[in-house]
Amino acid sequence: MTDNTISSAVVIGAGIFGVSTGVQLARRGIRVTILNDGPPANGASGRSLSWLNSARMRSRPYHRLRMAGIDRYRTLAARNANADWLRFDGGLTWDAEDERNEIDAAYRHEASLAYDAQRLSAADVAGVTPGIDATAITPQGAIFNPGEGWVDLPALIGLLLEEFSALGGVLVTDQGTARAVIEGGRAVGAETATGGRIRADAVVLATGPAVPRMAAESGQTIGDGTPVALLVQTRPLAHPLRAVLNTPRVAVRPAPGSTFSLDADWAADEGVKLRADGGYDIDNSVVAALLAEAAKVMEGNPKLEVATIGVGGKPIPGDGEPVVGGFKEIPGYYVAFSHSGATLGLIVGELLAYEVATGFEHPMLATFRPERFSLN
Fold first, then answer.
1. 257 domain residue, yes or no
2. What is the pLDDT of residues 257-271, one digit of tens each?
3. Model pTM?
4. 55 part of a folded domain
5. Given CA atoms 314, 226, 292, 246 in this order, what sign does their dihedral have?
6. Cβ neighbour number for residue 94 with a 10 Å cutoff
7. Which residues are listed as membrane-spanning (predicted)?
């Protein structure tokens, strides 16, 4: 399919949103260049827990978008049945034993949406999904969501870039940070840090946590709630855990090569300090505590060892909802900025590419447009 509205586009950012959008545009016969300030997936996509879900409570439009996102991953999984980077083995979650415990309310909400959910006691868990230390589950019980899964975003981005290249797309990674070029009130391309310019009919900004700052350079406001995140990748460990765990003190996600990805908000808050030069210092004692918390919820309480640690901003808009679509005040300039980048990665690329290529707004993105921040 070829659309006639535009013939060329430049995408700034080679994380999942940027690459997914670039591939979708290339599939439509549009000439696409992706610019990145380093290797693909060097930002938030490279340190994401990448849990595929629409669990707990959120707005109905956001839930529908996430469910569409999961649907696209199921299609991808069917075409890559033996992939070790995309799995649907379910998700298990429980809350702390205090007044903040929302397991009952969360279960009732998920059931009201027909979101596949099972309410389990600690004694029930072993018969449903393996690898959990049931003694860690609080008396209020847990929720198992059989339809949830996980993806390794760097592996997925690599696969998409292979198709992108085969379709004639160009990836530029060696010219530093890029910025949109605005002339006559519209986006006309992008300029790299080295001064190179790429003319294009449309520009897509998909630079993760840098989006609000970069949008502001063109006078556009996007509410920013981005915190610092820390993701620990373990060394390989033979263990039966298959589901993604979201528990009061740690999230644990299986990963390719018998490894596990771990994160927790408290670990990032307590263990990461921003340096004056923009880098980060990591408290190794906090990392050790995170490993210990993960071991507590895993069957046999295994000894976990660090392989890599990823630190940086976790993209979260100021109101928690995705920001996707065109800037009304700057024709030809589009943005993708959201939490849940993994779950939304394929569907956001598909719907944003539709808007860029056709000039029409997609109804599923109606509540997520960037101008809502300018209206407040």
1. yes
2. 999 999 999 999 999
3. 0.96
4. no
5. negative
6. 25
7. 6-26
